[in-house]
Amino acid sequence: MPRRALSSLLGYSGLLIGAALALWLIREAGMKLTAPAPSAEGARFGTAAAAEGIAGIFHVLLALIAILLASRALGAVFARIDQPPVIGEMVAGILIGPSLLGRVAPEFSQFLLPPAIAPQLGIIAQIGVVLFMFLVGLELDTSGIRKRTRAALAISQASIVLPFVSGCLLALFVYPRYSTSDVPFFVFALFMGISMSVTAFPVLARILTDRKLSKTRLGSVALTCAAINDVSAWCLLALVVSVAKSEPSDALSTTIYTILFVAVMFFVARPLMRRWVSARKDDEPISQATLGLVFIGFLSAALITEAIGIHALFGAFVFGALIPHESSLARDLTMRLNDAVVVLFLPAFFAFTGMRMEIGLVSGTEAWLVCGLIIVVATLGKFGGSYVAARAVGMPARDSAAIGILMNTRGLMELIVLNLGLDLGVISPTLFAMLVLMALITTFATSPVLQWLYRGRDVRESFDRAESVP
User: Fold this and answer.
1) 83 domain residue, yes or no
2) 223: domain CATH number?
3) Crossing angle of helices 149-178/397-407, nearest 10°?
4) Distance CA 469, CA 151 (A)
5) What is the pLDDT of residues 331-344, one digit of tens each?
């Protein structure tokens, strides 16, 4: 062995021996020390708290892997049958949840998705949908939408009023069969009405994005209608919840704060955003400082709308819409965030909501007939209101029907409403399962019915040629 290598080996060995000797001396000295007694509130040495924390992280990571595998596999299957992958991701949540895996292999299901990790998965899911709605706002062309405000307002409001009233009428039939005497009928009817009125803005945006229709003329109008629809629906939901809690002032304050938020964002924040974006060079790469400011901005907007009571995703969407979609900043943000959000975070949102459903609660001929009636009433109310309003503002019959089909898309926004009704005890678990099935079926029907409507024509080209939108 060369002398230099030998001297290095001896030096390194001496360093290790010296460190070991120092640690032994420190240990001997420390053994003679005493420390104060532990407090009653603090964690004690040897408890299972740390082990539980490690186990929780393990199960969260395991659940995410299972969700991604299932969502990617089913997304590919649904894409083969000309359905958007988002439908497969929603179905994946049901398959790995209690409705299928929980019945076939309950022990494995408990290991894969223990109830204790539900809060952590819920947070991941909410962050994912907030990020996705920010991206949708980035890609939205507001210049064309400003010319169609009258049509969007008319269609969105009509698509709420008609299904809301039909849902309240349906409550006359459903209440004596799937409710209890401690639930006031009027509160139950209002929840049935709101459950018929919601359009799944994130799901509709994902369907249009997957089919490359979000930037077309008719696709932009549909997204605008859905956005206005859901803001109105959340204000209406606040009214319903306030009636259930006997606090009518909540609905009024939610409406006032929503108007103030929208006014500030579009008349104050938007000019400042445009000035900031125009000051940047087109070829200037987005820096970490710029990315941090954008994140702070859209998270703050999401926080405000969450505090108002109309859900965080609308704040993220509005903030994204403030950034000019043709700017380099919007393109760079989309390129950086899109893949991670669509591939990782968003499937967690779809799967998490699906895992909370139990199809087995809907059993018997009568229950399935009632479930079918709910689907028919929800479809006719939503489609009918949108179609009539679109025709009234001058849209052609085919384009009006397309708007009605798109507005009939439900899903996760519906699940948020249903979960709130279930938490308040307004709707029963069985009715909850029926309404979830309604949301999934109406969402599943969107693409094939839209394709049938434009049979023999290119859907994207037809959407882009819809210049008759007022």
Assistant:
1) no
2) 1.20.1530.20
3) 50
4) 7
5) 888 888 888 888 88
